[in-house]
């Protein structure tokens, strides 16, 4: 295809990209000046104009052994040659059970069952559903509320957005989110934590925020508390009060 000028070429490229709606992206601006990845190897992507780009976030945290790894490529091909997909309803595949057994070996002793999902968003919503069903099965139907943390990210399902604490993600859907969800304060305070070596000494008292929330009479209504051990999407923050928060959940 030949173009009379650069503007015509840019317009034609933008038209080819229009059908795909991209998440967390200013679609109109992106399609005016797209950044297209052609291939990847090791720790580098290669763009459509031949530039190498360091993959500093490992895909989206899902390619942490690098791209086009020969052992992974061969394992995927070998499995596709035998079986591409087996539904998980009423039938199973041996490798799924094998993987679940391996995961329970490296998980904490009390975590001895595995439920596979397709994404973090689905995992969060599924965990919340399991918690609600568990309490209902025990006859505690009053437990329906969840507690999250400010600036926490738990996916883009309605459950994950409800317990998530990134306000921009919540704003368009506030009337449709889970009712009575609460958020404890986040742990980042630059004036108190700047230049700390290792875990900062300041901040452990923030775990009391959860304790106080549970003491306010909400404890008998709380189905679950979701805290990221390491916050990432709204800035990298170590979640120092996590052990104390876990202990508070056990008490209530």
Describe, in short, the structure shown.
Helices cover about 40% and strands about 10% of the residues. With about 250 residues, the protein is of the alpha/beta class. The longest helix is centred in the middle third of the chain and has 18 residues, at about 120-135.
List the helices and strands and how they pair.
Layout: H1 6-17, H2 27-32, E1 37-41, E2 44-47, E3 52-54, H3 58-61, H4 70-82, H5 94-106, H6 120-137, E4 145-149, H7 158-163, H8 167-170, E5 182-184, H9 190-193, H10 208-218, E6 222-225, E7 230-231, E8 237-238, H11 242-251
Parallel strand pairs: 4-5, 4-6
Antiparallel strand pairs: 1-2, 2-3, 7-8
């Amino acid at each position: 295809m030949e173009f009379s000028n650069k503007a015509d070429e840019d317009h034609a490229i933008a038209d080819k990209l229009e059908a795909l709606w991209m998440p967390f992206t200013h679609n109109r601006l992106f399609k005016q000046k797209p950044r297209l990845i052609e291939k990847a190897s090791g720790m580098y992507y290669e763009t459509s104009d031949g530039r190498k780009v360091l993959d500093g976030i490992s895909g989206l945290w899902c390619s942490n052994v690098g791209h086009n790894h020969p052992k992974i490529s061969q394992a995927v091909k070998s499995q596709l040659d035998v079986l591409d997909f087996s539904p998980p309803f009423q039938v199973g595949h041996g490798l799924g059970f094998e993987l679940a057994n391996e995961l329970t070996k490296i998980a904490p002793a009390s975590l001895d069952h595995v439920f596979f999902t397709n994404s973090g968003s689905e995992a969060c919503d599924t965990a919340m559903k399991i918690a609600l069903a568990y309490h209902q099965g025990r006859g505690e139907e009053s437990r329906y509320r969840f507690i999250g943390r400010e600036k926490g990210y738990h996916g883009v399902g309605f459950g994950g957005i409800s317990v998530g604490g990134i306000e921009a993600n919540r704003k368009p859907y506030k009337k449709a989110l889970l009712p009575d969800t609460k958020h404890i304060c986040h742990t980042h305070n630059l004036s108190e934590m700047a230049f700390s070596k290792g875990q900062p000494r300041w901040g452990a008292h923030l775990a009391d925020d959860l304790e106080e929330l549970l003491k306010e009479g909400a404890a008998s209504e709380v189905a679950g508390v979701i805290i990221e051990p390491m916050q990432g999407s709204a800035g990298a923050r170590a979640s120092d009060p996590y052990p104390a928060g876990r202990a508070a959940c056990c008490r209530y």
